[in-house]
From TrEMBL:
UniProt superkingdom: Bacteria
Protein's name according to its UniProt entry: GGDEF-domain containing protein
Residues covered by the EAL domain: 24-273
Organism: Methylobacterium tardum
Length: 287
């Protein structure tokens, strides 16, 4: 409990520092200097195809340290970056990191990058993404953009146009955190996503018959809309066993790998099960 409190206190302190005494201007400067000083970094969390045991993709996640080297949570700095517009620079930075990793790691099929509504609203957004992909010399279909369901997405003709442009370029678009926002169902009916990531809330409440039934229904719903699910937040082997019995192969979560450095991810890729050999799901992921 003391540890938990310590963490919470540290987070509140950092978030306040980031907002600054004078409000967002200081927050923006703090973030810009963090970018300039190389205090932002990217970690990558594997998304595993449990039918083969192999890494199918990795999600890029941003990390930030304050000037004293203490980690600031994305939940504290992303909202400030969005409000101040610094997310445009930070977002372009992590896109380059992701494409760089793809260029140096042919064994990694896909990297996904989170994008904020603020980035999508930027008229240069698609151009920036295309330029980064081109500069890295990678196939555009190896990059996925994760968009969170929100009021800004559903019913917005701009977003539909943007998705058409991205898919013409071959870049994938995934719906993130499905099931938590208020616009999830309208998003599914209006827009065509390559993948739908089911929020970790659902797998983490599938221990009860009711929770399991809800998750199965969400998975069926995604499938019935001809879209493919990724289940986020698996922390235990028995969750994978249960949810794979619902027909899901793609999972992300601490049980399969924490967000890790590029170096660690490369090691994981080098150690994968052989694609030629039959793979025993229960032996690998069972309790
Ligand atoms: P997200 O995109 O839904 O990312 C998944 C979050 O769940 C990550 O938190 C990840 O570390 C965490 N996670 C993964 N597996 C598990 C698990 O098994 N259990 C639990 N409890 N958590 C798990 P993180 O890295 O703290 O990021 C939080 C959010 O911040 C992200 O949620 C995303 O919305 C935002 N974010 C992170 N990096 C970026 C970025 O580069 N750009 C933008 N726009 N947003 C970002
Ligand atoms: Mg995400
Ligand atoms: Mg998510
Ligand atoms: Mg999220």
């Amino acid at each position: 409990v003391a540890k938990e409190e310590g963490r919470n206190r540290a987070r509140v302190f950092n978030a306040r520092m980031l907002h600054g005494a004078e409000g967002d201007d200081l927050g923006a400067e703090t973030l810009r200097s963090a970018v300039a000083d190389g205090r932002i970094s990217a970690v990558f969390q594997p998304i595993v195809d449990v039918s083969t045991g192999r890494i199918w993709a990795a999600e890029a996640l941003m990390r930030l340290k304050d000037a004293e080297g203490r980690a600031i949570s994305p939940e504290a700095f992303i909202p400030v970056a969005e409000r101040t517009g610094v997310i445009l620079e930070m977002g372009a930075w992590i896109l380059r990191e992701a494409c760089d990793l793809l260029a140096s790691e042919p064994a990694l099929p896909i990297v996904s990058v989170n994008v904020s509504a603020r980035q999508i609203d930027d008229p240069d957004f698609v151009g920036t993404v295309e330029a980064v992909v081109r500069a890295a010399g990678i196939a555009p279909s190896r990059l996925a953009l994760e968009i969170t369901e929100s009021g800004q997405i559903s019913g917005n003709p701009e977003v539909a146009r943007l998705m058409d442009r991205l898919s013409e370029s071959g870049i994938r678009v995934w719906l993130d955190d499905f099931g938590t926002g208020f616009a999830g169902l309208t998003c599914l009916s209006e827009l065509r996503f390559d993948m739908v990531k089911i929020d970790r809330f659902f797998v983490q409440s599938c221990d009860t018959p009711r929770g399991a039934k809800l998750l199965k229904n969400i998975i069926d719903l995604v499938g019935n809309c001809s879209q493919r699910p990724i289940v986020e937040g698996v922390e235990e082997a028995r969750q994978i066993e249960l949810v794979s019995s619902f027909g899901v192969d793609l999972f992300q979560g601490y049980h399969l790998g924490r967000p890790m450095s590029r170096h660690e991810l490369k090691r994981r890729l080098a150690d994968q099960p052989n694609p030629e050999e039959p793979f025993d799901l229960t032996a690998a992921f069972g309790d």
